[in-house]
Amino acid sequence: MVVIRARRINPRVSLNPSAFPPLPLGQSIPASPHAVSCSLPTMRAVRGYEEKDPEIVRQLTNGYPRFVVHPFAKKLVAHFTAATPALFGRTLWLTSSAAMARGLCAHLGAARRPELFTTHGLVGVSHPESPETYALTKVYLQNIGGFLSSREAEDHLVALKLLPAPHPEDVFKGDASAEIRRQLRPVLPGTADADLILANCGMSAMHAAFRTVAALQAPLGRTVWLQLGWLYLDTIAILQKFTPKPADYVYIRDVADLDGLTRIFTAHGARIAGVVAEVPTNPLIQTPDLAAIATLCRTHGARLLVDPSMSSVFSLNVLPHADLVVSSLTKYTASEGDLTAGLVVVNPAGPDAAALRSGISAGVEPLYARDAARLACQIGHTPAVLAQINAATPKVVAFLEKHPAVKDVFWALQAGSKANYLKLARTPDSTGGMITFTLRQPGALEKFYDRLRLPKGPSFGMKTTLICPFMYLAHYDLVTTPAGLAELAASKLDPDLLRLCVGIEPVEDIIATLGEALG
Q: How far is residue 192 from each of residues 9, 39, 196, 326, 426, measured CA to CA in Å?
């Protein structure tokens, strides 16, 4: 409390001015060729990134792996395009698997003339150069995690003598997948290895879970899916794009409206395939009454998919309530911030457990061996990393809640859903590091963001504190159009919402740096 009170008196003073050195536009966060974040230090850079401003884009060395084709993959594409006459005048995409390439061809359709590409153990899809086909392909691979892993691309570049050696890093030397599951089992009691299905990213895990449940439920006449609250953009995209018809996608804005959810189940329960819920939600960090929702689902034969990525499976015990737990392991478990990975946990007590195991195992995109080895090296540190983050987060929240320039603060223990969260938390302080907040003065976002010296970029759940103007990065189309702004307002989302995830740096430095920018 002494530190927080000192920051309130003189928030411009930083205890350690060098704690957060300036990160230039495009610098990888962390300093690795496999980093999952990159520095976007100003709102001009954020807008330029979203609008594909050449002046901004040319300075970006990397980006979040599902949104940006990695430089290593681009180098491979350039190599094969130059060496393959059949690719002249065509755009080549390297994919995470042959199954992904086939799925992409089917998605594009014959009229767009996609062709499978295979060479040197790599697979992909080419199509005639076309901005429309390019955009369609990129979004498809983004939504479901279909890009080639940066480490797999790196290994091929080394084999082709286009790189001298892989980037040096610590890795697990034994059976990496077994080690990852060994670390996960204590927080997912009752599960066997077959219940813990690894994927190359969280969205591959979500896509495989959704498609498997949908395939099991559709023959029973169950095709309706309920989205509980505002979810992460690619989860929303999966629900919207892969339900059979638009009316089968139902968005329930208020996660606390249990009466409304009950009425929907009472009226349409026999048609509902499943419910997808983030616990807590991204970005308002709201926690629904998960036990009550689980009861509704089980009573009416729907399946419940729960994503605890905002706090992690190490912080929340959601498996007893869910048929499937779907989580990003990029967050908190890969705390260095240099790989993506995902997880589907099948509740072994669920009615469809055997069929779900089989379908999801066949449907996920595989975690590349070197990514698994790197994750296995890091995952054992998760409890210690979370302990540091959990100790710091309430102090940052207390500072923000008391600062006169801050309007609203959202976090795991916010009023309104604190009780629901604590029912699931493994300990009372298992909050995770996520905080979102808004500024009191209209139009203050740009000045604050540009002044702030914290690392700024996408992703979260890293040892490094990260902040971003979340709605601009995730939903730029909504923050820049009247219809989009109306949609955000209807969901009680401020377009200038800031998303901050606390890292393991000294909390005094985090608070002082925030205070310095808030003024």
A: 53, 40, 7, 16, 20
Could you give the CA distance from residue 345 to residue 260 in angstroms, rounded to a whole number?
28
Helices and strands, counts by H and E, the chain: 21, 16
Query: CA separation (Å) from 87 to 98, 129, 188?
Result: 18, 10, 47
Domain ranges of the chain: 2-42+382-518, 71-147, 176-379
E strand or H helix that includes residue 92: strand 90-94
Confidence of residue 300 (pLDDT cuts 50, 70, 90): very high
Reported as half-sphere exposure (CB side, CA atoms, 13 A), residue 518 has a value of: 27
Cis peptide leading into residue 455 (ω within 30°): no
Distances (CA, A) of 37 to 27, 85, 252, 278: 9, 35, 31, 22
pLDDT for 18: 60
Is residue 293 within 8 A of residue 226, CB to CB? The reply is no
CATH for 176-379?
3.40.640.10
Summarize pLDDT for 229-287 with one digit per residue, the tens.
Answer: 999 999 999 999 999 999 999 999 999 999 999 999 999 999 999 999 999 999 999 99
Give per-residue pLDDT as tens, 317-336: 999 999 999 999 999 999 99
- Residue 316 DSSP class: B
Distance CA 221, CA 270 (A): 8
Domain 2-42+382-518 has CATH 3.90.1150.10: yes
DSSP 99-130: HHHHHHHHHH-GGG--EEEEETTEEEEEEES-
